[in-house]
UniProtKB/TrEMBL annotation:
It catalyses: 2-formamido-N(1)-(5-O-phospho-beta-D-ribosyl)acetamidine + ATP = 5-amino-1-(5-phospho-beta-D-ribosyl)imidazole + ADP + phosphate + H(+). The lineage of its organism: Eukaryota, Viridiplantae, Streptophyta, Embryophyta, Tracheophyta. Its EC number is 6.3.3.1. Belongs to the AIR synthase family. InterPro entries: PurM-like_C_dom (IPR010918), PurM-like_C_sf (IPR036676), PurM-like_N (IPR016188), PurM-like_N_sf (IPR036921), PurM_cligase (IPR004733). It comes from Gossypium trilobum. HAMAP family: AIRS (MF_00741). Keywords: ATP-binding, Ligase, Nucleotide-binding. Residues 235-397 form the PurM-like C-terminal domain. This is phosphoribosylformylglycinamidine cyclo-ligase. PANTHER family: TRIFUNCTIONAL PURINE BIOSYNTHETIC PROTEIN ADENOSINE-3, TRIFUNCTIONAL PURINE BIOSYNTHETIC PROTEIN ADENOSINE-3-RELATED. Residues 114-222 form the PurM-like N-terminal domain.
Length: 400
């Protein structure tokens, strides 16, 4: 880890030295402030990626701020709203924040540094922690924590440099905390970034006994002329999907509601699979950093969407220029058994599943037709990738 820290420090120093002038060279506010893309995430709902031209106008496309239905669907199936996640309230808060800090949006925030951008992302693990408490599986929840941030910043083409974590609990259980932090170390190793440090907070009476909360943030770097921003995406481009390990770290408020209605316990076998339900739900989030950076390095990648809260429906359009949408081929990949169980046990409509969960695809790359052929050929034996759809003229995402 020391070598990784040294490498990160050296890389930052090199970019600082290359800068024509310091970012903060005067105590006064610059008349033309440096570009800052500030991401805001509420209830695991990610908001739209803004192009550089839109950011310069400090505007937000309200047509892309989507919300889930207010009530259960007509079939009586469960929805995210039923599980207590009010996306409408989250959207309203984001609109109010936008008035105070224009330019929010995106999977990661970009800050100029010489001929590069620092790219930052922050997140937690959400109510997946509740299942960690119930199953006693704490060794991998730190991987989830790192994954949620580094997977966001790599969508800009950025290489993660370092990560910091925040661990808060009622009374510090050193053995339990060690397990959690070991997962964070594993996640940093998987994404080839340095764990610089963090904060451990012991707050009696604030958390329930035996419970804890996690958050963290990652910072990466990308050359300005290498930023993946989606502006060159055109109709006819291909959507390449990289498989997920399961639910990852989004939608667990709805998962837990389904579990309560299903009559199954976390120790029961997952229907259709030879694994316990708790183990399937706790499968750590895939860290896509090395794979995605390798694919980017071969050319042809125009946009990348991390499929988190909002599923396909809300995340894929975030990387598109106005006037473009996507068609998803529903049968182009294998949907994991855990999603089939969630949908059946919760009587959840297809549309609700597709805007809440990743459905087995954790990252989507928008690439040219030529690049898609090479990526799919290279995937044979080395990794798994699917041609899951295409870019079309129009708006939103449809499923065929």
């Amino acid at each position: 880890m020391t070598n990784t820290v040294a490498a990160a420090n050296a890389e930052i120093s090199r970019y600082v030295a290359a800068s024509s002038r310091p970012i903060f060279d005067k105590p006064t506010i610059a008349t033309q402030p440096p570009l800052v893309i500030r991401p805001y995430r509420l209830f695991s709902q990610r908001f739209p990626l803004l192009s550089l031209s839109l950011l310069e106008r400090n505007s937000i496309s309200s047509s892309r701020l989507r919300s889930l239905p207010n009530d259960s669907d007509a079939s009586g199936g469960l929805t995210y709203k039923d599980a207590g996640v009010d996306i409408d309230a989250g959207s309203e808060l984001v609109r109010r924040i936008a008035k105070m800090a224009p330019g929010i949006g995106g999977f990661g925030g970009l800050y100029p540094l010489g001929d590069s951008f620092l790219v930052a992302g922050t997140d937690g693990v959400g109510t997946k922690l509740k299942l960690a408490f119930e199953t006693g599986i704490h060794e991998t929840i730190g991987i989830d924590l790192v994954a949620m941030s580094v997977n966001d910043i790599v969508t800009s083409g950025a290489k993660p440099l370092f990560f910091l974590d925040y661990f808060a609990t009622s009374h510090l259980d050193v053995d339990l905390a060690e397990k959690v932090i070991k997962g964070i170390v594993d996640g940093c190793q998987q994404s080839d970034c340095a764990l610089l440090g963090g904060e451990t907070a012991e707050m009696p009476d604030f958390y329930a006994k035996g419970e804890y909360d996690l958050s963290g943030f990652a910072v990466g770097i990308v050359k300005k002329d290498s930023v993946i921003d989606g502006k060159n995406i055109v109709a006819g481009d291909v959507l390449i999907g990289l498989p997920s390990s399961g639910v990852h770290s989004n939608g667990f408020s709805l998962v837990r509601r389904v579990l309560a209605h299903s009559g199954l316990s976390l120790k029961d076998q997952l229907p259709g699979a030879a694994v316990a339900l708790g183990e399937a739900l706790m499968a750590p989030t895939v860290i896509y950093v090395k794979q995605v950076l390798d694919i980017i390095g071969k050319g042809g990648v125009k946009g990348i969407a991390h499929i988190t809260g909002g599923g396909f429906t809300d995340n894929i359009p975030r990387v598109f220029p106005e006037g473009l949408g996507a068609v998803i081929y529903k049968d182009s990949w294998n949907v994991p058994a855990v999603f089939k169980w969630i949908q059946q046990a919760g009587k959840i409509e297809d549309a609700e599943m597709s805007r809440t969960f990743n459905m087995g695809i954790g990252m989507v790359l928008v690439v040219s037709k030529e690049a898609s052929q090479r990526i799919l050929e290279d995937a044979n034996g080395a990794y798994t990738a699917y041609r899951i759809g295409e870019v079309v003229n129009g708006e939103g995402v449809s499923y065929h």
